[in-house]
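Hey, weird one. I pasted the DUF456 domain-containing protein sequence into the form twice and got a warning about non-standard characters only the second time. First submission, copied straight from the form history:
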Amino acid sequence: MGAWELLLVGVVLLIGLCGVLVPGVPGPWLVWAAVLWWALQDPNGLAWSILVGASVVLLAAQAVRWQLPPRRLRESGATRRMAVFAGAGALLGFCVLPVLGAIPGFIGGIYTGERLRLGGHGEAVTATRTTMRMGGTSVLTELFACLLIVGAWIGAVFWG
């Protein structure tokens, strides 16, 4: 697979990650489709292993999401700005503390956005709790699963 094709797969993966944070965009499906495209274009054992792993991770994330309360983020006062902060925090946390850093990064991103919006620590903590209870955990589950898949793909491309 050439560099341009890998770049296109990476772009689709990035769009899928952003799509997790945007309601109505099938982010996990885009991530899975990009890995499928890569595995079909570069058929080897590692590529197929990443595809199978991606399928298992997304199915597990879906099963966890079914156990969580339904998303009601708009009712909690969630804004697009907060989604950007949460996504950036999760990505930064994922890079700083590989894999597990996405969870505190996501919550820290929500807190930072709310702290800037509301001004005080107490109000920001309350807003962060409300957001996480009203559907933030569902978004975090999908985002974490997609970050795991993207991390595995990057590892396979560079070291595989």
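That's the output from the first submission. The warning seems to come from a hidden character in my clipboard, not from the data itself. The chain has one domain: 3-159.
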